[in-house]
Amino acid sequence: MAPRVLITGATGFIGRRVVAAAVARADLGHLRLLVRPAAVGEEPKGYDTSLTETVIGDLRGPDSLRSACEGVDALIHCASAIGGDEDLLRAVNDDGTRALVDAAVRAGVTRIVALSTASVHGRGPFRAATPGTLRPAPASATSRTRAAGERHVMEAGGAVLRPHLVYGAGDRQLVPGLVRLLELLPGPLDAGTSLHSLIDVDSLAGALLGAALSPRTEAGAYYVNHPEPVPVAELLAPCEELLAGQAGQAGQAGWSRAAAVDLAEAYELLAGHPFGRHHLAMLATDHWFADDRPWRELGCDPGPGFTAGFEAHARWYRDLLDPS
Questions:
Q1: What pLDDT digit, counting tens, does each position of 127-182 carry?
Q2: CB neighbours (10 Å) of residue 247?
Q3: How many whole angstroms separate alpha carbon 36 and alpha carbon 57?
Q4: Is the dihedral of CA 238, 79, 163, 89 positive or negative?
Q5: Based on the structure, what is the number of domains in the chain?
Q6: Any residues with CB less than 8 A from the CB of 1 and at least 6 apart, and which?
Q7: Residue 322 belongs to some domain of the structure
Q8: CA nearest 318: which of 247, 214, 225?
Q9: How many C-alpha atoms does 10 have within 13 Å on its Cβ side?
């Protein structure tokens, strides 16, 4: 029998792409999407309703989770709260994940896969870090509560996927945040030689679906990033181009940048910008996680490297940042 799959967070940046990957597979059975009441109307549309079902529920409402898990073979948990009130973060990421996992176990779900983040390990440096070599050391309320949610999944025999930086159409945090950082500086940022793990959103969606369906998926945590780490200069180059394009679209004739700014100077210039200094700290430090198991064992595709992968999404970013 074709597997029946439940996806939470189906209206989010990553969850929406997991849904697209799922409906494209001919070997998948019934697909159920769990959507928060506030997100009704935002769920992915245009799929065969005989195979795809939308149910209303909330990680803070155990009754809705029990009914959502009934008759499901695999659960892909993409829902989370990021930033904001710590009580809400705990209610969704920690308590809500525990309630969802409990409901799934009681319903006989045989495979649980959850999306997490490498940020549960804190701020680094991490250079070619492999599974099992790092302990959780979260530095924010979001990461602390997501680390707590991970434990519920793994204690139930589930798998947790930890990307570091995720880019692609729908991203309103990573690349827009880097463009905003560069905009605060008089010239391009020379951030040194750090290396960073990245993955495009479609490859991550494929890995989440693959982990839910592969018989070789093991309980525990996977790092899921493109195998080749990205030098920080390569990461910032398309963001600098987007900034230049944004200026051109705004009609800033003669717009130009000063000489490159190194990290020490950037820290001084951004002394009053916690947002900017946070991004600088990340960029200055290696965040490279090495784990080939998703690509070697689970039959998933890591996708193109960052430069080629970014080009496929560049128009979306340009439209997002277009000031007109």
A1: 999 999 999 999 999 999 999 999 999 999 999 999 999 999 999 999 999 999 99
A2: 17
A3: 5
A4: positive
A5: 1
A6: 29
A7: no
A8: 247
A9: 32
DSSP H or E segment with residue 74: strand 74-77
3-state secondary structure at position 116: coil
Please say whether the beta carbons of 292 and 130 come within 8 A: no
CA distances from 232 to 118, 192, 195 (A): 18, 7, 6
pLDDT confidence bin for 251, thresholds 50/70/90:
low
> What are the backbone angles phi and psi of residue 48, rounded to the nearest 5°?
-60, 110
End-to-end CA gap in the chain: 51
Q: Quick one: pLDDT at residue 19? A: 94
CA distance readout (Å), 167 to 16, 173, 176, 280, 305: 14, 9, 10, 18, 12
- Put simply, whether the predicted model's pTM sits higher than 0.85 gets the answer yes
CATH number for 47 = 3.40.50.720
Dihedral over Cα of 124, 129, 133, 134: its sign: positive
User: In 3-state terms, what secondary structure has residue 199?
Assistant: strand
In a domain, 177, yes or no: no
